[in-house]
Amino acid sequence: MLSVVIPTLNAAEHLPLCLQRLAGADEIIVVDGGSGDGTQQQAEQAGARLVLSPKGRGLQLQCGAEAAKGDWLLFVHADTVLG
Predict the structure, then answer these.
(1) Does residue 15 contact residue 42 with C-beta atoms inside 8 Å?
(2) In sequence order, what are the residues at sequence separation of 6 or more whose Cβ sits closer than 8 angstroms to the Cβ of residue 59?
(3) How far apart are alpha carbons 13 and 24 in whole angstroms?
(4) How many Å from the N-terminal Cα to the C-terminal Cα in the chain?
(5) Lower CB density within 10 Å: C or N end of the chain?
(6) pLDDT digits (tens, 9 = 90+) for 2-56
(7) SS (H, E, C) the chain
(8) Is the dihedral of CA 32, 38, 43, 44 positive or negative?
(9) How many CB atoms lie within 10 A of CB 48?
(10) How far apart are CA 48 and CA 25, in angstroms?
């Protein structure tokens, strides 16, 4: 099982396309560091699992890894668009 972990902070502009390209992944976890721009709502609407964390990319990645259920982890930024 593959778990995708996406750390976010005010990533509403880029997150929808990132999530769209990841559709079909076993598990998508968005770890938000306190966004105020609708990022959290977008993640939930897309069916991603939302984990709240203090901001800080390293801490967010750790929280996402700990929450993941997959055997494999893929870490991507919210502005990453996989082909």
Answers:
(1) yes
(2) 33, 53
(3) 21
(4) 20
(5) C
(6) 999 999 999 999 999 999 999 999 999 999 999 999 999 999 999 999 999 999 9
(7) CEEEEEEECCCCCCHHHHHHHCCCCCEEEEEECCCCCCHHHHHHHCCCEEEECCCCHHHHHHHHHHHCCCCEEEECCCCCCCC
(8) positive
(9) 22
(10) 10
Structure tokens at 36: 């105020």
Structure tokens at 77: 């930024």
Cβ proximity of 38 and 12 under 8 Å:
yes
pTM score, two decimals?
Answer: 0.96
Q: Tokens for 3? A: 């778990």
